[in-house]
Amino acid sequence: MKNFLRKPGLGLVMVAVAAVSLMEACNKDNSASTKPIAANQQKVSLYLSDDPGFFDKVFLDIRKVEVLVDTCGKTDDEGWDDKDRCWWDEDHDHDRGSKPDSCQVWDSLDIHPGVYDLLTLRNGADTLLAGGAVHKGTMERIRITVGDNNSLVKNGVTYPLKSVSGQSKIIVRVRHNEWDALTTDNLQLWLDFDVQRSIIRVWDGKFILRPFINVFTIIKMGSISGKVTPWDAYPVISIYNSNKDTLYALPWRDGGFKVRGLKVGSWNVFVNASNGYKDTTVTNVSVERGKDTRIGDIKLHK
């Protein structure tokens, strides 16, 4: 999961992760449905989280979630990288998986349709977006249908948020090895909505939505958590490694923060402070598979 909002030290203020107005937030159940599954099916759970942005609120009206399953077990892992992860499905021709193929099936998932506020949860929180039983096979795409009730709030002013040409379906490409497998037929995945990269301000002061969604897992990846004080330093956390992967967090008022979806290895934690406080960096923080690495409390000084 790569983010390119800024390099450490540029003083970016941001917020993180996702919530919903019509659904229980922070639902940690690993299944969106209690219905039994058939022998030719597998269970899927999709969680929604958020990456930071310069806004008070961002509302996304989610109406439907589907997954594209290749029932023949073929994979579409080669020849693309994260920059090809997500796009608007303008006419279904852009999505190669929507072309006729006897192996490919679009399955709808159970969801609570409604308006999700993408900036109300952060620091390890999430919400269960969709789930249920689908055909057994290799999942290659996720398709999210959005409604018309999308908006953002910036500096107390509400703005409508629309796609460039009125598109309503977001395609997210996934690899077969990017899912967490609780069991062979019980899979889960986190959708990380990058607000800062997804919202574009155009010349006339309006905003358009150009979705950028990445994915991460809990079992295969790790996390870093800690506490930064005082609050009036307005700290922004950047966590980065030698591969230039960079992730961000904005602590709670008590200073607590958590960044998930980190690859196994060594990471650095950079605290960008304001209001006269000095920046600080914690280096060589080890991240292990499926574990949270807790660093010591960081107290900033002027």
UniProtKB/TrEMBL annotation:
Signal peptide range: 1-18
Domain DUF4382: 43-211
Keywords linked to the UniProt accession: Signal
Protein name according to UniProt: DUF4382 domain-containing protein
